[in-house]
Amino acid sequence: MLYSKNLRLLLKNKSKYNFIRSVVNLAYRVHGKQDLDNPIIILHGLLGSKRNWESMSKKIVHVTNKTVIAVDARNHGDSPHHHSHTYPELASDVKHLMDSLSIKKADIIGHSMGGRTASVSRLVVVDISPISTAGVLNDFIPNVLKTMKSISFDGINDVNKAKAYAKKLLQSKSINADTIGFILMNIGVTPYKTVGWSCNVEVLSKYFIDIANFPNMSGKKYTGLTLFLGGGESPYIPQEDINGIKTLFPKAELKYIEDAGHNVHADSPTEFLQIVTRFLLLN
């Protein structure tokens, strides 16, 4: 996870880069008081959604007394499906949301894909590195997406029945129970008013290489305070990446939660909350 206190500055600077990007209107949920003066914006990871952050969003509100806005990325959750899915576009979507809500400054918590989105835009980064790519991204996730693509929900018009059907097929692929539970959260009513994957599996598969790799940021850096928070049992932020991280984020701080995996906020919610809110409140 990556965190930054000054997202808008980096978002603004990114508009100078030669990226061709589309913009969509993101779905979001506001937790706490409706005060949009320097809120905390949460960006989920690949195949996640704002729903995955419901409990943690409420806890962060309670500790910080700040407004938390949990967002669905394009091609995920309740946000629109689009034929393209690149980090410059994901960053532009966040900037567009901030502009539409007249948010001039925000603190960003980004998990995995959301962490890289925040890195491209402006930042706590949770369990993702801008330097290297974990092997699990290159091997396991494409196979999960391939399996998801192979599941047809034709003739099924009940969400619970669809989840039960998909669960059996995913179990037959020897996918562990925790991952299956996470994947099944993507089953619901699609933008086309049918029952199936709420995430855009076709586009996420097509753009997986873009998702798995950090854009070329050579010569660019963000000089604000930034927290990278990794799971001690996760391979997503190798300790040897710290020098490269500090090249892009000179004031970066790298911490690990020892017994947590990739989903740090779910695996160790108490320690995650303590570390993140302390960083938010003291910096």
From TrEMBL:
<dbReference type="GO" id="GO:0005739">
    <property type="term" value="C:mitochondrion"/>
</dbReference>
<comment type="similarity">
    <text>Belongs to the AB hydrolase superfamily.</text>
</comment>
<dbReference type="Pfam" id="PF00561">
    <property type="entry name" value="Abhydrolase_1"/>
</dbReference>
<protein>
    <recommendedName>
        <fullName>sn-1-specific diacylglycerol lipase ABHD11</fullName>
        <ecNumber>3.1.1.116</ecNumber>
    </recommendedName>
</protein>
<dbReference type="GO" id="GO:0052689">
    <property type="term" value="F:carboxylic ester hydrolase activity"/>
</dbReference>
<dbReference type="InterPro" id="IPR000073">
    <property type="entry name" value="AB_hydrolase_1"/>
</dbReference>
<keyword id="KW-0378">Hydrolase</keyword>
<dbReference type="InterPro" id="IPR029058">
    <property type="entry name" value="AB_hydrolase_fold"/>
</dbReference>
<feature type="domain" description="AB hydrolase-1">
    <location>
        <begin position="38"/>
        <end position="119"/>
    </location>
</feature>
